[in-house]
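[#protein-structures] MJ: dropping Glycerol dehydrogenase here for a structure pass
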Amino acid sequence: MSEDLMFVSPDKYIQGAGLLEHSASYINALGSHPLIMADALIWKIVGEDFATYLSQHDFDVTRVTFNGEASVQEIARITQIAKDNHNDIIIGLGGGKTLDTSKGIAEEVGAKLVIAPTAASADAPTAGLSVLYTEEGSFDQYKFYQRHSDLVLMDTQVIANAPVRTLISGIADAMATNIEAKATAQSHGTTMGNGAATFTGRAIAAECERVIWKYAYEAVESNVQHIVTPALDAIVEANTLLSGLGFENGGLAAAHAIHNGFTAVKGDVHHLTHGEKVAFGTMVELVLQGTSHEELNRYIEFYLTLGLPITLEATHLDQLSDEEMLQIGKMATMPDETMKNMPFKVTPREVVNAMKAASTFAHTYEATHTIKPILPAK
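AK: finished. structure tokens for Glycerol dehydrogenase:
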């Protein structure tokens, strides 16, 4: 039996400079007793001001500090706080793990969900699923929810003030969207929305990549200067809305499977962000697919210009033994991993070979071309 075509999305997405400070009317439509969860750093940067603003607009605000790991245990802990305080809205304020945790809490409580990212570092904000980890930080599971968020608030001034590394990480995560969606379509695979890809989902994934090629460099330069520009607006939308809808309605494949495979080993690879790991995973997927010389070089130049890690040395994987590399390959090709959406079977050894090849190709490009990084040398 063929799968039904399916398209899923959040109820409402709003983007603009200074949005958090004029969001009361949007949130008021959902309830009056929000629980705001953010980590300690985000509370200092923007959380206290946001909570005070809502209190001044007659919201009864509960404040909770997120412990930093998106785990089943953390969802349970904050769920109990929300139940004790009779919160009717859960507001996740922060990065991907904070947002993923807030989704689980909202479902457990039966509350409305507001997602308020403080960086455009990944495509978690619009997705109806969470990536959960163990309390030790190893990949645990994809958690799928019955519904999406009720409201996504993207304050582009907050994002312009965020570290540039976060925006570049989001660009890397978003660049994987169309590559993985095309692989999933070719294999007639299942999307993260648990259906067959629609033309709409595939078109969004393609538009995501087009916007990135057109605006990424200028958006990064805007972020360096902490200013909101049309280019920054475009990339915030690409990193968040286009990538989020694109991956969930288009499907994931090798790039994210390899990202998850990294949790099979210990080491400095875990000092990288989600998007930085996905950048290398995307290169590996391109190699597995037998991408042409010209196209592969285009991606290599793009990643190197943004300072993304696409060699074994840059990802610290050169520190691993061959057996440890094979463990990554084994985890990336587990039966329930998104590697199953590749249009051909991939073995653990093929993953290792492609990782080594991707690194070699990047080194060769560096040795034969002049790379002009967009950011100044550290």
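MJ: nice. The chain has 13 helices and eight strands.
AK: one more thing. Strands lie at 13-16, 34-38, 62-65, 89-94, 112-117, 129-133, 139-144, 151-155.
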